[in-house]
Specification:
This protein has 12 helices and 20 strands. It is of the alpha/beta class. Strand 19 and strand 20 form a beta hairpin. The radius of gyration is 22 Å and the shape is globular.
Amino acid sequence: MKTDRSLYTERHTCRACLSPIGQERYPLAPVSAASPNIGKDKDGNRPDTMLPMTLVRCDACGHLQLSEIFDPGVVYSHYQYRTAISLGLIAHFRRTADDLVARFPFTDPDPLVVEMGSNDGSVLALYQERGFRALGVDPATDIVAAANKLGRPSIAGFFTKALAIDIRKEHGPASLVVANNVFANIDDLDDVVQGVASLLADDGVFVVETQDGAEMVAANLLDVIYHEHLSFFTGHSAGQLFGRLGLELIAVERHATKGGSLRFIAQKAGGPRPVEPSVAAIQKDERKKGLFGAGYLSALQRRNEAVMAGFDAILAEHARKDGAIVGFGASIGCLATIHQFRLERVLNWVHDDTPLMTSIDGPGFSIPVHGPDHWPDAPIRLVVVLAWRYAEAILAKHGGRIPEGAPVVALLPDLTIVRPPRSAS
């Protein structure tokens, strides 16, 4: 395995509470740095290295996190992912905007919303439609330039305390600061949360939507663990983080996006809104799920070892048949699945309806990725649905191209025969 140590560092303290990072560990398979989300640099190159990953639970606050940190400059400077391509995500954020506007009648007659990790500005546009002044912050320079051309004001850079202070000086305090599926990607959470506290109006709220860490473990969502996601929050760890840094967690909601997400709502400490019962309820449920129990991550590891053993048995059963082994889905989550179950050893090619890359590459392997209009003229003996959440939609659209005798399987959350092989007769 080739590993460029200059591209990552290691963390030894918890991001949420700053305690020693913890002893409960799950050493995951290394992943390729050349993910579908990372575009080529100015010289036409992408990182050619594998990155180690270790999932760790903080003994003190239950925060789930990766101890290795991939250089964020490499990850985000040439980022390719666009919010608008995710199935159903814009509709979800439209409902979120309606809910927040109705729920929090801000005193500012000309309210400002600031979104960190604003990407293509799709969410900013939703708030503009609802009468907000909107400003985005995102490190992907090309995406920010495109957002600005669409009339979605955005700053190219990382959200920091220093930038937050500058934004407040120029635009005034923010009634709403939003972080959708980006808070988990930040290593120095202290600086960011301090920046939010500096930027918020006295009656402002900070809204974070991120992966539900406890549900990730309970449902075995292994495909959300990759080097962009440094944290997997819980109600316990979010409460610890905000409480240390001048904010107060006042509400927690569960949502179905990304296989199970939490929406945290916080205000300045001592702000005008009461703490809702949902905070204590989530924390109670997390304890019930075993968040602080012995062997919490070891059980997750054993579950995935069972998936691997079951898939190896399927491979052995079909080893003598002619034809290719094909994957469906080429997102970064699908790439995580490929690595964790070592599918690079068996996949001949991968299909994706909106591919961001033409191949999935890593040291010693290259798996071709084909769009919906290109099907190699070769027999298929086994199909692995990597984008397992969309298995029904994939079969509805492409099932006719898959031979009757080829089984269709998904590996997550547990090994499932999506469509068993059938006789051609």
